[in-house]
Amino acid sequence: MKVIRIYIDTSIIGGKFDSEFQKASLKFFEQVKENSFHLIISTLVQEEIVAAPEHIKIFLDELKPNATLIEVTEPALKLREAYLKANIVSKKSSNDALHVALATVNNCPIIVSWNFKHIVHYEKIALYNSINILEGYQQIAIYSPMEVISYE
Q1: Domain boundaries in the chain?
Q2: Quick check: 111 and 142 in contact, CB under 8 A?
Q3: DSSP letters spanning 39-68
Q4: d(CA 82, CA 85)
Q5: Which three-class secondary structure string do you get for 19-40?
Q6: Rounded average pLDDT per 10-residue block, the chain, 152 residues
Q7: What's the pTM value of the predicted model, to 2 decimals?
Q8: Tell me, which fold does domain 4-147 have in CATH?
């Protein structure tokens, strides 16, 4: 069975410590440890976590040995700009668009996020994918952890 490459944004790291998202987050990370998923983490996640509480930074460090770390690249920045031009999100939320762009240009089939306002939203997903097609990229699946974990 092929292990699925999943890009995680910053909300997933914090979700482990949030009472609303903790149960599904713990199950997701348990399945990561069982090699059901291979995590793709960007340097953007690292930058966003700099101001987070220490326990969140420690948790990210614990994930890194079993993850692939990707850099912010020119193609990702260009794709983010296309998302912003299309008004999928405002400039204020440009990092959210950059997460989607990073996953897309790095050929991750799935993004997992708890960000329902700017990423995991049916209108946003369709818009991100329409821009991906226009820019010559594949469509990307965007889910919350609850939608990717195995319940068996």
Answers
A1: 4-147
A2: yes
A3: EEEEHHHHHHHTTS-HHHHHHHHHHGGGEE
A4: 5
A5: CCCHHHHHHHHHHHHCCCEEEE
A6: 90 95 95 93 96 94 94 98 97 97 97 97 97 98 95 80
A7: 0.95
A8: Rossmann fold (3.40.50)
